[in-house]
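Hi U.,

Before I forget, here's the chain from the pilot set. I'm dumping it here mostly so it's searchable later in email.
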Amino acid sequence: MKLSFLPCSYYISNLNLTGKNNYRLVATYYFYVMISRLKSLGPGLLYAGAAIGVSHLVQSTKAGAEYGYALLGVIVLAHLFKYPFFALGPRYANAAGESLVAGFGKLGKWAVWLVLALTLSTMFTVQSAVTIVTAGLVQNMGVPLSTPSLSFALLMCCFLILQVGNFSIFDHLMKGIMLLLAISTLLAVVFSFGVQAEISTSSQRVFRVSNGDDLEFLLAFVGWMPAPLDIAIWHSIWSLSKGNTKTSNEFDFKVGFYGTALLGVCFLILGANTMYGSGILLSPSAKGFAAQLLEVFTNSLGGWAYWVVTVAAFTTMLSTTLTCFDAMPRVMCHIGKELSFHQNLQSLLLWRALLFLGTVIILFYFTHNMKQMVNFATIVSFLTAPVLAWLSYRLVIARTDLLLWSKGEKYLSLIGIVILSVLSVLFAKSYLYH
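Structure:
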């Protein structure tokens, strides 16, 4: 029988399942469909590549190490209430045949100017944060260069890869690397329950929203869990460039979204099982934190896992750095087109060069350590999130000709906007009185 992409129920209903060969045929079909789907992953993989990085390797691990399981529910709630906004990117691109930037333009030029202001306020800090973490992993591999120098080299590599046009090669390689990281992380979580760590009750920190430092970390954690809301705009642009169908867009998005949720939970559990209450202070430097992160894996899996996890973590962070470097200049080009900027200001090369220059300046002259950079970038992303969420809601309400959200997703989005806004106000109040 020739296999085709018909529902598996068709084969099952037309087979005599008493024979071993038929069982094997159905099993083969399921496997074939799964592999074909994974091979076809496009924008959803780019979403995962951008999301799985600082928010997971750094923030989730830190959340578990400092607060135990206390913030586990935060990961679930962050995914739940951000879901409608992330889903809007590929859905709008498929339904309207244009990016979210163009969609916001339908609300009025003021909306695009607002997106421009939000993008400029975050793009350089986001790129700086993901680059400095990647540089820390390289330093931990024994490269004797300073963090700014390594960051410069990494950004130059990203610039050249994108300009030469070999991102597709890295895109294919990334599938295998991310799968390796996912398997390593899942195994490490399982074995971490057997790690015998010395626990000190006095070192077990309790999370309190009334505590300014705890609230600051909560915002930084939620800001990039699983990713900043800007990624919805990126996803819409990637979907247009890939030319995906509605079905593949939905599958892509769900694989990326649920995959990042699972890994977020895993990294938090790893931090909680191996570091919480141990009295170990997390290093603020990129190199020091990278060493501690890899120690978490080796404590759980054994010394043999060191280089496996090192390569997987570095490549994952490099993919995040490269994906962000690809996305934000594209967004600026779309904004320039909507606002009818001069042709030069719609140049992808120009915005890549400006992003490169701005990031290098921040990392060389304004960043003292990884912790400072990550906290600043994630908090800024969080504070801009309510505005992006509100714009997304306005767009969905305005485009009544398109079915973009279900009734339940509209309610979720409203609750998400309220929560994001309240937390932002609490942070502003805490900051002013701190």
